[in-house]
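Sharing a chain and its predicted structure for anyone who wants a worked example. Both blocks are below, sequence first, tokens second.
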Amino acid sequence: MGSILIVNPKASGVSAEVVERVRAVLPADVEVYETAGQGDATALAREHEPTAHAIYVLSGDGTYNEVVNGITGRVPLGFLPGGGTSVLPRALGLGRDPVVAARLAATGTARAIGLGKVNGRRFTFNAGIGLDAELVRRIDRRGRRADGRRPGDLAFTHEALGLLAEHRGRFPDALDVEGEGPAAFAVVANCSPYTYVGRLGLPVAAGASFDGGLDLVAPANVRVRDLPGLALSAVRGARPRDGLLVLHDRDRIVVRCRRPLPLQADGEDLGDVEHAVFEAEHAAVTALVPAAAR
């Protein structure tokens, strides 16, 4: 078999025209498979990994997450931006345009990248427990539009402001990072940027890298007066200081919650947990990246 292209037709940037334009710049023998529901991308990746020369994925970050949880890492992966945010391909230097990304991946080079794991589930770029996971959950509760697509950045901004207002800007300590201390919430990065708001990349953990371990940023006992500083840290990258725990290049981080808290990985709600074990999985998969990006 040659290569395969896994397409999530409900991703916000995917259409029949985009699929055809992407297919035209990929290897001529590529076969297209569309997902119909949750778990399909995992099953397709697992089924075709033993024989495919490469697996390309045109989707959003949730489908990339499914794919990396379905493979052992033997086949090169081309992550093509088809979602509203598509953090992973942008962090790998493939950009936001799916056709350009497909061309760069098809003519690029293979790069071994590390992944994170939380409670055994792989993630590609970030995971979080507490505040950001609650935001992911609120977006999910909005449901999808008539075309099956997820709400965009405006909805995220609206929900974030609503969450801050509901808590009156205060987030008391709700968890403990083992061996380090208490925190209100925690975000864990496998690369930088942590995420994007439109074209703006939010580094949060600016030193995080696909080539290293995991970085954690966890503020303690957040009050209204702390919010501007946290916002600045999100834009410029967090540095350790009183009330802000920053860990760099860790292979294992254990978080214990004082009450069940929401957990997310790559923007997917993983439910409430009482503890979370974050682990770095070095050189776990091979990504196709622009030749100059290696």
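Comments welcome. The first strand starts at residue 4 and ends at 7.
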